[in-house]
Automatic annotation (TrEMBL):
One Gene Ontology biological process: response to auxin
Similarity comment: Belongs to the ARG7 family.
One Pfam family this sequence matches: Auxin_inducible
Protein name as catalogued: Small auxin-up RNA
UniProt organism field: Helianthus annuus (Common sunflower)
Family matches, as InterPro entries: SAUR_fam
Amino acid sequence: MAIRMPRIIQAKKILRRSLSNGSRTPTYKDIPKGYFAIYVGEQKKKRHVVPVSLLSEPMFQDLLHQAEEEFGYNHQMGALTIPCSEDVFTDLASRLGAF
């Protein structure tokens, strides 16, 4: 079993930069410890609170790289924005055990 520490560390850096550049919304207190908020959707963005354990999943890391390419580190919503349809994300998160 290979450990992909560089990808995990890189994913955490992407998330940290993303969250540090956005302004905090009033709902940030609603996020329990060990979770983070993301916005998902192509046109209308919907907020999801997911466990940080997703950061170690290669498929979620691919979504983070897509977010980095599309949005950079400045997210208008104040949290990480994932550039995929909500249905695709919900399916992926369910398979990874986030929901």
